[in-house]
Amino acid sequence: MDIAVNILLTIATAATPLLIAAIGELVVERSGVLNLGVEGMMIMGAVGGFGAGHLTGSPWIGLLAAIAMGALFSLLFAVMTLSLATNQVATGLSLTLLGLGLSGMIGTSFVGQPGVRLPNLDIPVLTDIPVIGRLLFGQDPIFYISIALTAAVMWFLFKTRTGLTLRSIGDSHTSAHALGIKVIRYRYLSVIFGGACAGLAGGHLSLVYTPQWVENMSAGRGWIALALVVFASWRPWRVLAGAYIFGAVWIGQLHAQAFGIPVPSQMLSSLPYLATVVVLVLISRNKRLTMMNTPASLGQPFVPDR
Amino acid sequence: MKKLLIALMTTTAALSLAASAQAADKLKACWVYTGPIGDFGYSYQHDQGRLEVQKALGDKVETAYLENVSEGPDADRAFERLSREGCKLIFGTSFGFMDAEVKAAKKFPKVMFEHATGYKSGDNLGLYNARFYEGRYVLGQIAAKESKSGVAGYIVSFPIPEVVMGINSFMLGAQSINPNFKAKIVWVNSWFDPGKEADAAKALFDQGADIIVQHTDSTAALQVAEERKLHGFGQSSDMIKFAPNAQLTSLTDEWGPYYISRVQAAIDGTWKPDNVWLGIKDGAVKLAPYTNMPDDVKAMAEATEKKIAGGWNPFTGPIAKQDGSAWLKDGEVADDGTLLGMNFYVKGVDDKLPQ
Question: Which of A210, B48, B56, B252 could share a disulfide with B194, CB 3.0–4.6 Å?
Answer without folding.
Answer: A210
